[in-house]
Write a structure and sequence with these properties.
The complex is a heterodimer of chains A (about 475) and B (about 450). Chain A has 22 helices and 3 strands. Chain A has about 475 residues and is mainly α. The two termini of chain A are about 15 Å apart. Classes of the chains: A mainly alpha (about 475), B alpha/beta (about 450). Strand 1 of chain A pairs antiparallel with strand 14 of chain B.
């Protein structure tokens, strides 16, 4: 394994993180939040030290960089990012427990939005900003960002494909344009532009600037950290509706936006995943609207809450405008189902992804037909194009791994003695990067009551969910660490 | 005309035979000296040995003064290059290339400016078109259309329980209740031009001219059940199968395609989303039963082996499949089929040759020339389509007063959009399309040839 190369990547990642920490520091300075300022400064010092040591140690790195290095690099980047990113909370003393601070920032980077804080409004503005910004950075991926800004060296730069594949969600990741750097740039430009538009819309609704920025970050990364204790509930219906629309938009595969930019709009509307995504969203809104019709005073309000919650859960954002834990059990089950399905592949959302669900159904259909007529040769298609068998078997393996991890985590955190509903929804909410679950981890509650051990389990779940399981599982595989490269 | 044929395969040699018979000067190019030797012994032509796409060989074959180059080697790319090179050497050269690969099928004709081709022929696609036309009107063994599809000559077999069995032609109109005309009868392998008191017997194959809109009435009144074809089984996964399946998919007909080779199955399944491709040996009866041959509306046998096709078709017939179409690679074999229930027989090679011969004839004489020529009744009778123009003699004279050649029969006159089955009072007017049948081969070159 090319350890030195990975070390260099990590140093670069840390540098990027350090740079992004500066706006948060500036905000804290501006508001005169001295505890936060000290936290940020200590963190920056530690980052500089770690990055410097890594640079020195890994000066002479070989060029060999395969799939194994790519995956390990992605996993380590995220772990490092989280370990260093949590320091401002811990060193400022605002979150005294290290595991709690780590939970908070992992929840941020993985765009989960699950919090251990009972109330956030008293937090220094700089830390609030950093919390929300971690969503934005984690949404599109920090390595993708690095790929967009780092100069691509000529020879052997094809290895970056492994990074994109490991960090971007979806069963079948590909480049948009021949050059990796441009692909990453296009993704980030679309991302930035959409975030800015979101901020403008929020400002039109008379939202204060910092709150608008933080909310837009939470929406764009489909994260879910809000700056208010009651999430989005106290804002005007206009802001809630804007957020609903933008959550749904950020749950769409970003290559669709690229196709729209290329004016290939027809292809976008024919995309099976997109149709299913909106189909599921509309169906879920309809079902919940019908189920909760007696709870709210007007149909408009019912529709607003139903659509906001559906968009929030399906795109795995995790904002809330109302305590959906008080809804009838049918509505809660619909939301729980949406948690598992998740958003589109290639978006900032989590979950199994609509594309995978679609593929899984097609595989199931094929296998049933295969039983009835074993001699029939059948091809699974996506948007009319035949799918590679390798993608299909990966999708099956993904589902298996998904189920195993959910069951194991569920088992382990049950030791804390909470109710089954709480535990299951906590695992699903963390693993699918949503945030709030049901009952004791519902939208008005938080994860603070869990033990440090359970929090660690949930942290791993969040990372595994964001990186789509395999990069994390690879760390556990012995062949990853064996010194002899497989011939 | 001076014609060069590149490629001495099945199509090339069949063409050579026909074109020499029609009096053209023929040069044959091939890379195989044995093929050339036998060809020159059989046909009155000269041979050039070499690669037909090379300039030197083409010049040796006299491309500079030739009128037409037909490229029919087994490689599409060579055919294309051959025509392009030939056209580069002689701007007045007409070129015909055989292009069979489905991947090229669309691009060649849409890129006329780039590929200097007068015509492309695709035997497999043409066979598929023909088969699809048959499937749309189950009951006819064969259909030939004239006058832009307004007039048809269809082939029917008189079975034992047919309503036409032992009926004289003059009584036929009372049974079919629409204007049709029997223009030829094939009895015991010989074509007969029937008169009014001719009595049809079991086993006859009759060729009936009818306006297209009368076809359904004809089938209905003859008691031939025309259930719309809903389920078709294709045996063999070659190019013809691919084309048919893609046509039928568009018509919304459910298609089952049986193919032995797994790799080919996967390819077909990828190209044909709605067809159910089955990896199985279609020559096994158990397989056919498993795949439900009993409830198919039509069976088309398209494997590479004529004998396999025949056996499967016979089995299909015994299982009561309403419509059976058999592909034969060798046209000679079709005479065997007369004695068996093989259904319609399609020979891609012959379809393709007919198409080229039609082009050559149309090229040969520009005014009053035959618009199209179809060989029917096992090639013993020709149906020829003409356009009546200012040079046509005997315009506006009733048919009964015209003196026609003895073996010529006028079977259809299309005036505007209306097709008429002619009687003695009909006249030709300018702009009409006339279909005549004749038992003499190649004697009708232009319209005026029909008059005595």
């Amino acid at each position: 394994m090319n350890v030195k190369m990975i070390g260099r990547f990590l140093a670069q990642i840390i540098a990027v993180e350090g740079v992004f920490l500066l706006p948060a520091l500036a905000i804290s300075l501006g508001y005169g939040e001295w505890d936060a300022v000290t936290g940020f400064l200590y963190t920056l010092a530690i980052m500089a030290a770690v990055a410097g040591v890594l640079f020195l140690l890994c000066r002479k790195a070989g060029r060999l960089f395969g799939a194994r290095e790519g995956f390990v690099c992605v996993s380590f980047s995220w772990i490092t990012l989280s370990l260093l990113g949590c320091l401002p909370f811990w060193l400022s003393g605002r979150i005294p427990g290290f595991v709690d601070a780590l939970f908070e920032i992992v929840s941020g980077f993985t765009t989960t939005g699950a919090s251990i804080l009972p109330e956030v409004e008293s937090l220094p503005k700089g830390l609030l900003y950093w919390r929300s910004f971690s969503h934005w950075l984690g949404g599109m991926g920090v390595l993708v960002f690095l790929l967009a800004v780092a100069p691509s060296s000529g020879k052997g730069s094809g290895f970056t494909m492994h990074l994109l594949r490991a960090e971007s969600p979806g069963p079948d990741v590909g480049k948009l344009v021949p050059k990796m750097r441009q692909t990453a740039m296009i993704l980030y430009i679309i991302y930035v532009v959409m975030t800015v538009i979101n901020i403008i819309f929020l400002l039109c609704g008379k939202m204060p600037l910092l709150e608008a920025v933080c909310t837009a970050f939470g929406t764009a990364g489909t994260g879910g950290f809000a700056v208010k204790n009651d999430s989005i509930a106290s804002y005007s219906p206009y802001i809630q509706n804007v957020t609903t629309v933008f959550m749904l938009l950020f749950g769409v595969n970003f290559s669709c936006y690229y196709l729209i930019l290329l004016r290939q709009i027809r292809g976008v509307f024919k995309d099976e995943e997109l149709r299913l995504y909106f189909g599921i969203a509309i169906a879920a809104i309809g079902l919940i609207f019908w189920n909760i019709r007696d709870i709210y005073s007007s149909a408009g309000e019912t529709l607003r809450h139903a659509s906001f919650q559906v968009a929030s859960i399906m795109t795995t954002t995790g904002f809330a405008t109302t305590d959906f834990d008080l809804w009838p059990s049918f509505s809660k089950t619909v939301l729980l189902t949406l948690m598992v399905i998740g958003a589109c592949a290639g978006s900032t959302g989590g979950g199994i992804k609509v594309a995978r669900v679609l593929l899984l159904f097609k595989i199931l259909r094929r296998n049933i037909r295969q039983i009835l007529n074993p001699q029939k040769v059948q091809i699974v298609r996506n948007n009319g194009r035949p799918m590679d068998e390798k993608v299909l078997s990966n999708t099956n393996a993904y589902l298996a791994a998904y189920v195993i991890i959910v069951i194991l985590s569920f088992l382990l955190i049950s030791l804390d003695g909470f109710s089954t509903g709480t535990n299951l929804s906590a695992v699903l909410a963390c693993f699918n990067n949503i945030g709030p679950g049901l009952e004791a981890v519902g939208p008005t509650c938080n994860f603070g009551a869990y033990s440090a051990f359970s929090k660690m389990i949930l942290i791993v779940d969040m990372l595994a969910g964001r990186l789509e399981i395999f990069p994390m599982l690879i760390l556990l595989s012995r062949s990853t660490w064996s010194p002899h490269r497989q011939k | 005309m001076d014609i060069i044929i590149a490629g001495g395969g099945k199509v090339g040699l069949t063409l050579a035979r026909q074109l020499v018979a029609e009096g053209h000067n023929l040069t044959l190019i091939d890379r195989d000296s044995h093929i050339l030797e036998t060809a020159v012994e059989q046909y009155d032509a000269i041979a050039v040995l070499g690669n037909c796409a090379s300039k030197e060989v083409l010049l040796r074959a006299g491309v500079a003064g030739a009128d037409l180059l037909i490229a029919a080697t087994n490689a599409d790319e060579v055919n294309l290059l051959c025509c392009m090179t030939g056209h580069g050497l002689n701007k007045n050269l007409h070129t015909i290339a055989r292009i069979r690969n489905p991947e090229y099928a669309d691009q060649v004709m849409t890129m006329r400016d780039v590929f200097p081709l007068s015509m492309t022929v695709n035997p497999e696609r043409q066979a598929a078109v023909e088969i699809e036309r048959l499937l749309r009107f189950p009951g006819f063994l064969r259909r030939d259309s004239f006058a832009k599809g307004r007039t048809e000559i269809v082939e029917l077999r008189i079975g034992k329980d047919s309503k036409l069995c032992d009926v004289s032609l003059s009584d036929m109109s009372s049974i079919v209740k629409c204007r049709v005309l029997v223009c030829a009868v094939l009895r015991a392998g010989a074509a007969v031009a029937p008169s009014g008191n001719f009595v049809l017997r079991e086993g006859d194959r009759i060729f009936v001219t009818a306006p297209k809109e009368n076809l359904t009435v004809l089938l209905k009144n003859l008691g031939i059940i025309t259930r719309k074809v809903r389920k078709v089984m294709l045996c063999g996964g070659g190019r013809v199968s691919y084309y048919i399946a893609s046509f039928l998919e568009k018509d919304g007909i459910s298609v089952q395609l049986l193919e032995k080779d797994h790799q080919r199955c996967v390819e077909l399944a990828q190209m044909l989303p709605k067809t159910s491709v089955i990896h199985a040996d279609c020559s096994s009866q158990i397989t056919l039963e498993e795949q439900g041959i009993g409830d198919c509306d039509a069976l088309v046998t398209l494997t590479g082996m004529d004998e396999t096709n025949m056996v499967i078709s016979l089995y299909g017939g015994s299982r009561g499949v309403p419509q059976i179409i058999t592909k034969l690679s060798r046209g000679e074999n079709s005479s065997i089929g007369d004695s068996m229930a093989l259904g319609s027989m399609i020979c891609p090679k012959e379809l393709c040759c007919n198409q080229i011969v039609r082009y050559v004839r149309a090229m040969g004489n520009q005014t009053g020339a035959a618009v199209s020529v179809h060989a029917i009744a096992d090639g013993q009778v020709e149906a020829v389509e003409f356009l009546v123009d200012e040079t046509t003699r005997n315009c506006n004279i009733p048919l009964k007063d015209m003196k026609l050649k003895p073996n010529v029969l006028v079977v259809g006159i299309t005036h505007g959009t209306q097709t008429q089955i002619p009687n003695g009072d009909c006249v030709f007017t300018q702009g009409d399309t006339v279909v005549v049948v004749t038992s003499g081969r190649g004697v009708l070159q232009r319209m005026n040839d029909i008059f005595a």
